[in-house]
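Students often ask why inverse folding is considered easier than folding. One informal answer: many sequences map to the same fold, so there is more than one right answer. In these notes we will look at a single instance of the problem. The structure comes first.
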């Protein structure tokens, strides 16, 4: 009995010095741009969402944008590279979405996330987004056991990026709120 009581203080002290989860950086913005759009010059197109754009995105996606500032770059052929963040279990996930001129997801790259969210970085899982267009069925993207929140938030985030392109970056007759 006495020996087991001695383990409690040791466990408390040990947990106080346990390292916090560290974000793993997989690539920077420039590297992601070159990976998604190799050899293509991208032009910065940062904007701030107005209230109507913000409301339209929230209504369509049923989730709020990361913020009102949109970090986007455009190719000469009308394709988009959008940098976004979604919450993971303990920290933010920074990712980039490449979208072709028809509004179809070309590729997704994870720039930074917690080490324990590594399942969302797997190319096989990210490939489920390829070919998706605005208003795609989120239920068609598999949820990853152990990374449930991260995978669900990524699906909503990609839909939000596509809605942002439609309502704010390239508003067309259909895209206007």
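Output (designed amino acids):
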């Amino acid at each position: 009995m006495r020996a087991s009581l001695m383990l409690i203080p040791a466990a408390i002290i040990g947990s106080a010095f346990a390292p916090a989860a560290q974000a793993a950086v997989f690539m920077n913005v420039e590297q992601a741009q070159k990976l998604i759009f190799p050899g293509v010059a991208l032009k910065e197109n940062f904007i701030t969402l107005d209230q109507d754009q913000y409301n339209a995105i929230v209504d369509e996606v049923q989730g709020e944008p990361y913020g009102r500032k949109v970090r986007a770059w455009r190719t000469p052929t009308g394709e988009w590279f959008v940098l976004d963040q979604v919450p993971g279990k303990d920290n933010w996930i920074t990712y980039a979405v490449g979208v072709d001129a028809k509004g179809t997801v070309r590729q997704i790259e994870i720039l930074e996330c917690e080490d324990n969210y590594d399942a969302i970085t797997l190319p096989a899982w990210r490939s489920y987004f390829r070919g998706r267009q605005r208003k795609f069925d989120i239920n068609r993207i598999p949820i990853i056991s152990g990374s449930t929140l991260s995978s669900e938030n990524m699906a909503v985030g990609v839909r939000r990026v596509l809605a942002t392109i439609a309502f704010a970056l390239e508003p067309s007759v259909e895209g206007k709120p």
